[in-house]
Write a structure and sequence with these properties.
Two copies of one chain form a homodimer. Chain A is built from 17 helices and 13 strands. Chain A has helices spanning 3-11, 18-29, 35-48, 52-63, 91-101, 120-124, 136-145, 159-170, 177-190, 211-227, 249-260, 266-282, 289-301, 304-315, 321-324, 351-361, 402-414; strands at residues 79-83, 106-110, 148-152, 195-202, 231-238, 246-247, 334-339, 344-349, 377-380, 387-388, 393-399, 416-419, 429-433. A four-stranded mixed sheet of chain A has the order 1-4-5-13, sandwiched between helices. A four-stranded antiparallel sheet of chain A has the order 6-9-11-7, with helices on both faces. Chain A has a three-stranded antiparallel sheet with strand order 10-8-12.
């Protein structure tokens, strides 16, 4: 087999065999096939597509390119969740401890933010001392002893995906649904997941802009899960406006803490109950999604979910004083509200523009490795459907630089669409795929 | 500007500006943009295409990526020819000295063979001592003093094309008509050509298999020539069967010598007259193509074309004894005929299979840098339309290895298609594009 023939096959719309994908992807991972051949192939895949069978094979090849976690000695059925990324999405921070408190241990490996989309690890690192670099042994021990883990991906897992993703990032080959699906699923399989809830975001603040794209990705991921003997469902979740109120790392941790104290924003609380309920159901802990939802509402109301979060933070070296008294979390120098310049109904809060404004303030990164400022961000006070009086606060901006603060005020006002007539609130979910 | 945005533009079917192509291609040539980004872009170009305007801009960017020859102090109008490559195509060896003998000096930079397609430089190197590595100064001096030059491309010319072509070769991105056209034209412009005759081969033994593809490439090259202020025509020439009788380096030199002595195969002689006549016409030396053809027939019949070839070989260090007495050229150890296993009419002599058999014998190379054997090759005695008796010689195989000889016999018999009824000979040309 020659690498150039694998490229030519995909260029000419052929379907790869499992052997071809193994040869090509593992050869690349070992450094035997150069970047430039894989880059040409990735562009051919993006433009010509892959069948579900090819995508499943690519997933398995990448998943088994390194160490694959076996959690069967720690949990009866390892349940995971995955969000495709959005603005204000701090769901894992609530759902992982809540599901654990409900009796199903959850160990999750999360990622960092890039562009307008935030990342769970960045948020957690707002908590002084919190370690996101657990070893596999530490991960398993904490999963067994505490029942809840939120850490970074160990470098050993799915190295082929890591290498391929870095190449796609600089060659314009990220937005390929088969490549996105196989990248996500390979990491989940390598992390030992036996059941997965996909939180597929759709809208202007998501990578999938249209419902058709989101449905295609969701269907493909659920299909791969089935083909590889995993249980999975995918929720199609709105990401036209930010989720909850807080956008920015420490601000989102505060909102997650409030939610775990049963005082979270209505939409975010509801989102967490739904995601968590499906996890409990796929994990076999409850007989129905409704029963899962009731169980989660209970453990949040009773404080058990909060106690689990606190135990997780403590186990991972975080300073619990900073979560017991969240005013101790990083705090920006300039905190100012943005009042409504007019009255009316909110027809849109453009999630991507809000996310990009958070990046402008320093909450996110333009490119991998950029430093981030945990203190800065935005509180979103108005959501689609709200009636607003002139002068009422639309946003609160948390900034460490007066010039950026001024820019952010402008950008945030431009993110709002107004209506003179009543507007329906946005749904939280557009559909469910799988099971 | 960022390289990844240039890739994304082409991925999304955008049209590049001249500035984008300059940034991307010159950045690549200088080593500032890595192979993997250019590989992804080349695949996007192959699959999404380029407009003629983009292709012209790419041509000019590559042509001016290095030194551009100015031959205006040596010849009134520099005329060049280019064949897209085929089997048995030794046209340059005859046409360059013949056109020069007719009064129009021609300096041509040729290439090497790859795969089933032979290369002029490899053929010329059958002549002991013949130098194909003239410097630009030697090239110009010989063009002025002798009037005929056949050498390799100086490394200074169109370095961007050289680097891009090498990358395309290993990334499955060769067969893109805009990339092929801009590669050919950039080298012609850099070599100082003011008028060009394209000999676009079409058929099973050519890179363009169909007349539509050949016409597309021919039209694009003629269009680029016009847009850049050059005169050009393109001949669409048959390459379903080998051109002439000889396939293999020294064998083809012998056939060229015979043709220059007015004793060449009819089809090859006629092909040379047509290509050369268009060169004389584009060069302004004659008023019509017919006048050009008559002039060439004269200089061949009178021995002037042969004398010019001899002077060129001598000027480039070649041993003229080897061309005065061609039996001194490299000669294979085993020379055997392949008799017809049956009688009938020849319906096909599959040019690519014949070319591949020559490579098998050692006359060509599978990949760049492979050594070649100048002595081996094939004489093709039967052409499409011929009536053949059982036992009549179809081929003569020249081999240096008995095992390969046996394989070649098999392969050559498989290259023949038979008919029980009379068959029309193949035309030499299917059409002319331009002027």
């Amino acid at each position: 087999m020659r690498a150039v023939d694998v490229i030519i096959k995909k260029r000419d719309r052929g379907e790869h065999t499992r052997e071809e994908l193994e040869y090509f992807i593992l050869g690349y991972t070992r450094g035997e096939i150069p970047d430039y051949q894989v880059a040409a192939w990735a562009m051919a895949v993006l433009l010509n597509g892959m069948t579900p069978r090819e995508t499943t094979d690519l997933t398995l090849v990448m998943a088994y390119s390194g160490h694959v976690l076996d959690l069967s000695d720690v949990v009866p059925r390892a349940v995971d969740k995955h969000s495709t990324g959005g603005v204000g999405d701090k769901t894992s921070l609530v759902v992982v401890p809540a599901v654990a408190a409900a009796g199903l241990p959850v160990g999750k490996m999360s990622g960092r933010g890039l562009g307008f989309s935030g990342g769970t690890l960045d948020k957690l690192e707002s908590i002084p001392g919190y370690r996101t670099d657990l070893t596999v042994e530490e991960f398993k021990r904490q999963l067994r002893e505490v029942g809840a883990v939120l850490t970074g991906q160990s470098v050993d897992l799915a190295p082929a995906d890591g290498k391929l993703y870095a190449l796609r990032d600089v060659t314009g080959t990220v937005p390929s649904i088969p490549l996105i699906a196989s990248s996500i699923m390979s990491k989940k399989i390598a992390a030992g997941a036996q059941a997965i809830v996909f939180d597929v975001k759709v809208g202007v603040g998501a990578f999938m802009r249209t419902l058709d794209q989101a449905r295609e990705l969701a269907t493909l991921m659920v299909d791969i899960a089935r083909q590889t003997g995993r249980r999975a469902i995918a929720l199609l979740a709105d990401m036209n406006q930010p989720l909850g109120h807080a956008v920015g790392n420490a601000l989102e941790v505060k909102e997650a803490i409030a939610t775990l104290h049963n005082q979270g924003p209505r939409d975010f609380h509801e989102h967490c109950l739904t995601v968590g309920a499906y996890m409990l159901w796929l994990g076999g802990l409850v007989d129905s999604v409704d029963a899962g939802r009731a169980r989660l509402a209970d453990v949040i109301a009773s404080g058990q979910a909060w106690a689990k979060f606190r135990a997780m933070v403590q186990a991972q070296g975080g300073d619990v004083r900073a979560i017991d008294e969240p005013e101790r979390l990083p705090r920006a120098r300039y905190i100012e509200t943005v009042p409504a310049p007019r009255g009316g109904y909110i027809a849109g809060v453009h999630a991507r523009r809000v996310g990009e404004t958070a990046v402008l303030l320093g909450a996110g990164r333009e490119k991998k490795g950029d430093p981030i400022d945990h203190a800065v961000g935005i509180e979103v006070h108005a959501k689609v459907g709200d009636a607003v009086q002139p002068g009422q606060p639309l946003f609160t901006v948390h900034a460490n630089d007066p010039a950026k603060l001024a820019q952010a005020r402008e950008a945030l006002l431009a993110a709002i669409t107004w209506s003179d007539t009543q507007v329906e609130p946005l749904p939280l979910f557009y559909g469910i795929i799988g099971e």
